Amino acid sequence: MPTKFTCRFKSMAIAGVASLSLSACATVPGAGVPAGAPITQAEAQQGAQYHPQFVQEFGGTVSGPQAQYVERIGARMGVESGLGASTDTFEVTLLNSSVNNAFAVPGGYVYVTRQLVGLMNNEAELAGVLGHEIGHVAARHSARRQQTAQRNQLLGVLGQVLSGAILGDSALGRLGQEISSTAPQLATLSYSRSQELEADALGITYLESAGYDPHAMATVLTSLARQNNLDAALQGRDSAQMPAWASTHPDPASRVQNALQKAGATTGILNRDVFLSNVDGLMYGDDPKQGVIEGRTFIHPVYRFAFTAPQGFNMLNGTSAVSISGDSGKAQFSTGPYNGNLQTYVSQVFNALGGDQQQLKPQNMQSTTVNGLPAVFGTARVNNGKSNVDVVVFAYQFSNDQAFHFAAITPAGQSGVFSPMFESMRRISSAEEGSVTPRRVDVVTVGRGETVRILASRMAYDNAKEERFRVLNGLSSTDTLTPGQKVKLIVRSGS
Q1: pLDDT tens digit string along 169-228?
Q2: Three-class DSSP labels, the chain
Q3: Where is each LysM domain found (predicted)?
Q4: What domains sit in the chain, N to C, each tagged with a CATH number?
């Protein structure tokens, strides 16, 4: 059974429990432990407790030689950190996620997504990202964040979860943010500016001690910035918010400059060819088992449906929900328990959005049909303390025991921005289902006479092929290729 679209209500509950437990416990593992000290038993136990949830929320793990390679580099950086003499000190996991992200939790658990690895161009960049996350563990940044939340429950996760609709970290409140619906992002609070800079500095120190080129930290941040700017342009957005790994304070440009300054004139190995040979064949982009985003359209070949986001809106494919965000509203698409009654289903979604302390009910509910699918939608106007907002839940019946829904939030009177998306939901044909195949990284050697334009024409996309090729390979707008140079293409599996 696909992991995508497992019960959304269940995933909300899991995320809430994780964040509540991590921030509101009486004793925070790692609190008071000096930076750089070995990982304690309490920290290890905490990490082991939440590890399965984090893996599930990110679509599971990638196994095989590619994952083993990432684990080896992570283990090496763990030893460089001095937190433990053994390569078993850290458990490094390659996640099956199409989001550019990496994170770490107390106890020596480090995670990086296959999408972020696919964007990298050498082993030093991989080591730098993993070293940055290990730096957070070494400096006990998570424990310090948890202590801060514990000291001020009104600002901590507990207060946020119970604060009601459209506030803090309530289910509905998360619709007002850039949503990826992952337990790690809910279970860990934002790092401060100084903590991010400290983790960058520690990662660069580990790079140097391992013999890598310390400038790799800056180059991977640059690639992330370019990728996100390209994504924004392709989606018709005027501005770009950085991917999860690079979105923290300070801004990415500042982090690049600080990383370059810290690296100085020191040089080291990149291991570019070794890295490329190890990521050759890695899945890139969405896993069809979890549905795929093609332009503005989301297609799920397993459940056989598709819908199209409004022009100018960004879509993010999470493991338990698809988020749709733009300047005039946010939405999530997901599923939940269904007993055959769509009106009951819509009411349940409103209840889940309201949370424990907020009674959120639709002020009106209507039945309709969308492209042959029975549908029910409900709306509610809510005051978030500053202004009125409209909440819409639009649900569709696909079978007697399966329903899906959108939950959307917009400024009052502007919910119509999502009407075309609600009306676009449809079943797909067998031909469309069969046409959905995964993309993968294909490492090729540049031949004599081959240019960026020629190789980019082989990229498995319908638009911006050259721009995608340059970002993928860390090439500026003026960089050229040399015969014998290895580069990455994104192709369809089987091609």
Answers
A1: 334 444 433 333 333 443 344 677 788 888 889 999 999 999 999 999 999 989 988 988
A2: CCCCCCCHHHHHHHHHHHHHHHHHCCCCCCCCCCCCCCCCHHHHHHHHHHHHHHHHHCCCECCCHHHHHHHHHHHHHHHHHCCCCCCCCCEEEEECCCCCCEEEECCCEEEEEHHHHHHCCCHHHHHHHHHHHHHHHHCCHHHHHHHHHHHCCCCCHHHHHCCCCCCCCCCCHHHHCCCCCCHHHHHCCCCCHHHHHHHHHHHHHHHHHHCECCCHHHHHHHHHHHHHHHHHHHCCCCCCCCCHHHCCCCCHHHHHHHHHHHHCCCCCECCHHHHHHHHCCCEECCCHHHCEEECCEEEECCCCEEEECCCCCEEEECCCCEEEEECCEEEEEEECCCCCCHHHHHHHHHHHHHCCCCCCCCCEEEEEEECCEEEEEEEEEEECCCCEEEEEEEEEEEECCEEEEEEEEEECCCHHHHHHHHHHCEECCHHHHHHCCCEEEEEEECCCCCCHHHHHCCCCCCCCHHHHHHHHCCCCCCCCCCCCCEEEEEEECCC
A3: 442-489
A4: 8-283 (no CATH), 288-433 (3.40.1000.10), 439-492 (3.10.350)
